Amino acid sequence: MISVLNAGNWAEQYSTIGERAFLSITMTVVGIAIVVFILALLSIVVSFMSRLINGKPEKEDTTALIPQPAAVQPASTAGPEEEETKTAAQSVSENDDALIAAITAAVSLVLSDSSQPSAGFKIRRIRRV
Amino acid sequence: MNSIVNFMNAFGETITRLWQGSGFTNIQLDQIGMILIAFVLLYLAIVKKFEPLLLLPIAFGMILTNMPMAGIINMNFYDPDYIASLGYPGNTLFAYREVLNEGGLLDFLYLGIKLGIYPPLIFLGIGALTDFGPLLANPRSLLLGAAAQVGIFIAFIGALLLGFTPWEAASIGIIGGADGPTAIFVTKTLAPHLLGAVAVAAYAYMALVPVIQPPIMRALTTKKERGVVMEQLRPVSRTERIIFPIAVTILVAMIIPDALTLVGMLMLGNLLKESGVCERLVKTAGNELLNIVTIFLGVSVGATATASSFLTYRTLLIIALGVIAFGFGTAAGVLLGKVMYRLTNGKVNPLIGSAGVSAVPMAARVTQKVGSDENPNNFLLMHAMGPNVAGVIGSAVAAGILLALLR
């Protein structure tokens, strides 16, 4: 139908309101279907691409929300420094990665303003006190 | 004595000839009407700041072309019947001999529209300025961008039933895509005689998004739905940002080749930006090139708005259908947003669906405003940017479909 549509014969072929309505609805359905199909396909491709690049997103860890009975602690043979390191490591969650990046950027900016060398500056951990 | 009389006669004749050749004696009433309309558009652009970057050059182009006796543009050179009468082959786009020998400045500038050069270059600049990160973080936004293109086809139906040809109806419907370059790209191919009216309607309605959309958004959503706070978007890696434009270009080109011109240039601009190794090109594409092409496009489009083509009953219909297209596009996006709200158990705020019309970033800002009216602590802007930029792709794809079906 659409392939024979040209300026010469369309008015003869679709002279009544009903025929025009049929033409318009057909083209609308085809058009919307193709738009939705392409963008849905893009959506799938983008999702697949992000999984391929970033890996499967980790499921939210809900065990932290459920109070766990205190485990029996094995006799600690670690020195005070190691215990402190473990405590510090536990306190750094994934959300602190963004905080570390922000603090690093701010410190680098301050150091560059004060003409001090900022190369090699790196924040390794944060401990909330 | 005789010489004085002769001199006075010659002087009088010269003055009379000058007066008769001036614009004062040759201006028509409809030209005065068009100049007044141009003044209104200038007011909207300068005082109300309605899309001034395009509306101001368009309005000034309208003044230039409707000045009597100026002949600043000869639209005959692009009329198929006139071209055929000069003996050119059937598929000749413009009377190139006449343009080269007799054409004025705007005749040459108009070639950028006629040959389809300006809109893709504008899309190149837009791509260089666009951040697809929110879209990549939430790929479902693409569906909202698709839904908002329903307005294009609803207006297409309305235009066809009102007596417009399918080519004119497609040019009118594309106003609903809320994308000026796309509207111009489709109209110059399918219905170039409607270019002035379609361009003015498209850019005027893009500026009226904050007026048109909120009532529709509030009518279709509940307070609870409007107050939904969405989860923070995940960070998007550089690799994803680089692969995305390449993947989109190839995918769209394989399915709808007619959409490649616009989508391809949009993605080229974005790839230049995201690659991080073409800063100079990004700066040029997003600034100098975009600004130069915007000026040429605006003035050329305005120059096509002559009294005979603009001051018709059909122009009023075009303006009315443009509002319908916008309204239905907004409604369709919000309704799909409501479906997503239900399917995700209330994690998606339906308001972001309205941002699927590709008026970037105005539509996203409107979503933020309506959402924050309900919940001042709700920040929907970045969530709405996903559907907003998806709408740019969606409207370009819709344009490609219309061109493929009707060209």
Can you offer a commentary on this structure?
The complex is a heterodimer of chains A (129) and B (407). Chain A has four helices and no strands. Chain A is mainly alpha-helical. Classes of the chains: A mainly alpha (129), B mainly alpha (407). Chains A and B meet through helix 2 of A and helix 10, helix 11, helix 12, helix 17 and helix 23 of B.
What is the subunit organization of this protein? heterodimer
Q: Radius of gyration of chain B, rounded?
A: 24 Å
Low-confidence stretches of chain A: 60-92
Our count of helices of chain B gives: 23
* H-E string of chain B: HHHHHHHHHHHHHHHHHHHHHHH
User: What is the strand tally of chain B?
Assistant: 0
Helix fraction bin of chain A: 55-70%
Largest interface comes to: A-B, 35 and 44 residues
Strand content of chain A: under 5%
Euclidean distance between termini CA atoms of chain B: 73 Å
Largest sheet of chain A: none
Q: Give the proportion of residues in helices of chain B.
A: over 70%
* General form of chain A: rod-shaped
Helix/strand/pairing class of chain A, anyone? mainly alpha
Shape of chain B: elongated
